[in-house]
Write a structure and sequence with these properties.
Type Iii Antifreeze Protein Isoform Hplc 12; 3 domains; five-stranded antiparallel β-sheet; SH3 type barrels
Length: 215
């Protein structure tokens, strides 16, 4: 009877330790995938029968849906535990069809809970914050995953926008009205037409309404 109790005790103790180790591995994987809104992680170790007591997790290396956990045993020796992991993640999608040039807002977005694969989702937008404020390059459809090449940072000044042209020197600064002949973002140099003189100048975009003539 005593031997049976002892066996049951060590079996329970081993189960608790394995569960703790599994939880630590899941946390390591989660930390490495912090750019994904993870709903849950499940791991499946290949060599579960070879797991000994008293293992300390040092590191986890992931490749697609596989992992290698580097652990240290009681003697200070490193071991490798290999396995698979399954992730369920909340992926942002649109709640309606939007058209080219639409600036994506928070109210345009819902989430889909899906089984996530690193290789299949490598180019998919996985966080709301990477969508909000972006401009669609083409028609985007409801509830479909959005790839990074489907959106761009919106232009600060668009072609045909009316802007300020600033002429600046050591002695004087002038400000006149102009029309953008090209689209661009802050820091870009674009062509601007002076409304009064019709002269075309090259100017650097410094704000969403102002450009500075470059020499």
């Amino acid at each position: 009877m005593f031997n049976l109790i002892l066996i049951l005790f060590f079996a329970l103790y081993s189960t608790i330790l394995n569960a703790t180790l599994s939880s630590d591995i899941e946390q390591k994987i989660s930390d490495q995938l912090s750019n994904i809104d993870i709903s849950s992680i499940n791991i499946f170790m290949d060599n579960n029968k070879n797991i000994s007591l008293g293992l300390t997790l040092k590191d986890v290396i992931i490749n697609n849906n596989k992992f290698v956990a580097i652990v240290k045993d009681k003697q200070g020796l490193n071991q490798e535990l290999k396995g698979l992991f399954k992730i369920f993640a909340n992926i942002p999608v649109l709640n309606k069809r939007i058209y080219k040039g639409h600036i994506i807002q928070e109210e345009d977005i819902i989430t889909r809970k899906v089984e996530f694969s690193l290789d299949k989702f490598s180019n998919i937008i996985t966080q709301d914050k990477k969508l909000i404020g972006k401009e669609s390059k083409a028609i985007l459809y409801s509830k479909r995953f959005i790839k990074s090449n489907m959106i761009i940072n919106p232009y600060d000044i668009r072609k045909k926008d009316m802007v300020n042209i600033i002429f600046k020197s050591d002695l004087i600064q002038l400000r006149v009205k102009g029309k953008a002949l090209e689209s661009g973002r802050i820091g870009d140099i674009i062509k601007i037409e002076n409304i009064d003189s019709k002269k075309i100048v090259l100017a650097k975009i410094i704000t969403k309404k102002s450009t500075l003539v470059v020499r």
